[in-house]
Design brief:
By secondary structure, the chain is mainly β. It has 2 helices and 23 strands. The strands form 3 sheets. Strands 11, 12, 13, 14, 15, 17, 18, 19, 20, 21 and 22 form an 11-stranded antiparallel beta sheet that branches. Strands 1-2-3-4-7-8-9-10 form an 8-stranded antiparallel beta barrel. The radius of gyration is 19 Å and the shape is globular. About 5% of the residues have low confidence.
């Protein structure tokens, strides 16, 4: 367990973990993100749930579940007014804070559509037959709550609240007559404020958890007029979170990236393997990673969200969340890598 003295280095009020009171301002919203993946089972889930600006009491949830093999996904999108004081909810999906800074639960008991990674990196989801799915997962803090408070100036949320945390995940996943116990890594994120995807050009957002208890985060975000980089290491050995310098990272599109220059499928041969190099107090540390699966979402300004990739509209932003296997100093861990790129720069895989 992380000591109380180390879990909240940026001094967030624990009450900010809970849903925020809506603010009457253009494009104000609030979002939660939860990701969990079991490397051995090849199973995981990803939930992005946010308030509708036109009616902040209504939550929109996009749920995507990674199935073994790296190709098939179960996906769903729900709207509902099922949130409460402990967390957001939309129909069959409910997120609940058990203990601020330390533990959350994510529950789903509904239906989802079967599709593949290849389909979702070529087109948006089409309606089709659904099948029942359930999961119940606990997210326990593996690293401190991270959330720098400086104003980024522009982007999806600016001058507002943001926090994130790398977690340990355990729970149960039920589908197609099987009950699969899960144990792995998780990531959670919480933000509120005015949001507009328009200025976002590209990003990578990377989180890793290792058996030793070490966690690592790396982020590079490019906007129309600025770039933001951050990285940290928490070693789980009684020392505090340490900020690190990003020396090398996977490709992130520049503002002038050529049309149709990046493969829409992040598991394409050229991009599946990558490395990150950080300068830390222990010297340079290299992470070698391999993507294992991915899903895809397309955002449209200010904040519409489609399952899949809308290649026919160059004004969208594709976001892919990809489970990964990662190695650092001989230790093998599990990770999440997010990649964002404008749809006008993408081409479909052969």
């Amino acid at each position: 367990m992380i000591p109380d003295a180390l879990i909240n280095p940026f001094r967030h009020d624990p009450q900010t973990e809970l849903p925020h009171a809506p603010v009457a301002m253009p494009n104000w919203t609030e979002h939660y993100f939860f990701y969990g993946y079991d490397l051995n089972a090849g199973l995981g889930m990803n939930v992005h749930i946010g308030r509708l600006p036109a009616d902040p009491g209504t939550w929109r949830a996009v749920v995507q579940m990674y199935l073994p093999g790296g190709e098939e996904l179960l996906v769903a999108k729900y709207h509902g007014r099922d949130g409460d004081l402990r967390g957001p909810g939309a129909g069959p999906i409910k997120l609940s804070c058990v203990e601020p800074l330390r533990q959350w639960t994510v529950d789903f008991d509904g239906a989802a559509f079967s599709t593949t990674r290849q389909v979702l990196t070529r087109e948006v989801l089409r309606d089709g037959p659904a099948e029942p799915v359930r999961f119940h997962m606990f997210f326990d803090a593996a690293g401190p709550l991270f959330g720098r408070t400086e104003d980024l100036g522009e982007g999806r949320s600016s001058s507002t609240f943001h926090s994130e945390q790398i977690c340990r995940m355990h729970g149960c996943f039920e589908y197609r007559g099987k009950q699969v116990p899960l144990r792995g890594m998780g990531v959670r994120d919480h933000s509120s404020g005015p949001r507009d995807y328009g200025p976002v050009v590209s990003d990578i957002w990377f989180h890793a958890l290792f058996p030793s208890g070490k966690v690592i985060q790396t982020q590079v975000v490019r906007f129309e007029t600025m770039e933001y980089k951050t990285a940290y290491v928490y070693r789980g050995d009684g020392t505090p979170l340490e900020m690190a310098e990003v020396l090398e990272h996977p490709h992130v599109n520049a503002r002038d990236a050529a049309p149709q220059s990046l493969c829409a499928d992040p598991l394409s041969e050229a991009a599946r393997n990558f490395r990150i190099v950080l300068r830390t107090g222990a010297g340079n540390e290299t992470l070698e990673a391999e993507l294992l699966h991915s899903h895809a979402i397309t955002y449209f300004a200010p904040m519409e969200e489609f399952i899949g990739t809308e290649l026919g509209r160059p004004d969208g932003i594709q976001m892919c969340e990809a489970p990964a296997r990662v190695t650092c100093n001989g230790e093998v861990g599990v990770a999440l890598r997010e990649r964002v790129a404008r749809t006008g720069t993408l081409f479909a895989a052969a």
